[in-house]
Write a structure and sequence with these properties.
15 helices; globular; binds iron/sulfur cluster
Length: 350
């Protein structure tokens, strides 16, 4: 297993890859695949347009209690970007103008944002379904002892990262001891009814590959996870989603430093699937950044590629009519969404 042991973000280490412009330069020039737009044009999907917004994703910032090797956000305890109450209020005001059924809250570790619980309660009061993209260990952080109860009380659906059902692989990607803490957090959620039939509390896990390879078929790996976690840890959950690691940020650092970058890009491009391309999440999602900037997805957010082509670029100018059928900004990183069956959970987790 090849991995990087990360203790600080790219930003804190002064790594040039902390700059989205450097990532975009590498993605545009140094790869083993044809331009993404060419493939989309051949599949009659270029330019790509949204088909209406059914998921309102809010990224509340880059602060996290972990520093995972593959994080596409470059999140960590050293990051200070967090959504303010003022911007959170603009999000709720925008949401109230729509019938968008799902609010998807992500980060960093979104629960560490002081406005997280307010956002959840406001979205629930508007009758919306709320997803929390959770790294699990945050449920054990000091000061968060009541977090699991809060989530259950508000019927928040959990989308929780667990790259593997064994400690070695999970710890290699997410840090020493993370697997054991994740299991303790899952037990806490199970004890509240999460993942149990008839409770109405959904607990979904997210698998992502530990190295420079594509995820296996979802059904097969879900069955393996269910068997192993129940037998060895007494854990139950609803679904396992698989996601492809995006060749950006710290995973891009991993690819470059292990000599895997060009091979990985080639693998993604060779696995281009027009059906996955037609169903990419940016077509039905709007992504709001910690400072209120609007993006087509969380990946474009991390590459500093805001919504373009004349549509509003900030939550204060929110206009559903202009956003519903907007043209989407794409690039070579999008190969990560169109490979194989695509990613199955509408985005990455914290
Ligand atoms: S990276 Fe974003 S813009 Fe590109 S295909 Fe995926 S979801 Fe769409």
């Amino acid at each position: 297993m090849t991995t990087l042991h990360i203790t600080q973000s790219l930003m804190a280490r002064g790594n040039p890859l902390a700059a989205p412009s450097e990532q975009l330069r590498i993605l545009a020039t140094k790869n083993g695949c044809p331009p993404f737009e060419e493939r989309m044009r051949a599949a009659l999907l270029f330019p790509l347009h949204a088909t209406g917004v059914t998921v309102f994703q809010i990224n509340v910032g880059k602060l996290c209690n972990q520093t995972c090797a593959h994080c596409h956000v470059d999140a960590g305890p050293d990051r200070r970007e967090v959504m303010t109450r003022e911007t959170a209020e603009l999000c709720i005001r925008a949401l109230a103008q729509t019938e968008i059924p799902t609010v998807d809250i992500t980060g960093g570790a979104p629960e560490l944002n002081p406005n997280f619980r307010w956002l959840v309660e406001q979205a629930r009061a508007l009758g919306r379904h709320v997803l929390d993209r959770c790294n699990l260990t945050v449920l054990l952080v000091q000061g968060q002892a009541d977090l699991a109860d809060f989530l259950a009380r508000n019927q928040v659906e959990m989308i929780a990262s667990l790259p593997y059902y064994r400690a070695a692989q999970t710890d290699a990607q997410r840090g020493l001891g993370v697997f054991d803490k994740s299991i303790a957090a899952l037990r806490k959620l199970n004890a509240l009814g999460y993942g149990k039939e008839g409770s109405g509390l959904l607990l979904n896990l997210v698998y992502n590959p530990v190295g420079a390879f594509l995820p296996p078929k979802q059904e097969a790996i879900e069955a393996q996870f269910k068997r192993a976690l129940e037998r060895e840890n007494g854990i139950v959950f609803n679904r396992l989603y698989t996601i492809t690691n995006m060749p950006i940020s710290r995973f891009l650092e991993f690819l470059l430093s292990t000599g895997n970058y060009e091979g990985y890009m080639e693998r993604l491009a060779n696995a281009f699937n027009p059906a996955a391309a037609a169903g990419v999440m940016c077509r039905y999602m709007l992504s709001v950044g910690w400072d209120g900037t609007l993006y087509d997805c969380d990946f474009n957010q991390m590459l500093d590629l805001p919504i373009g082509f004349g549509a509003p670029q900030h939550i204060r100018d929110f206009d559903p009519g202009q956003l519903d059928a907007r043209r989407i900004a794409t690039g070579n990183h999008c190969y990560g969404c169109t490979a194989g069956a695509g990613s199955s959970c509408g985005g990455a987790t914290a």
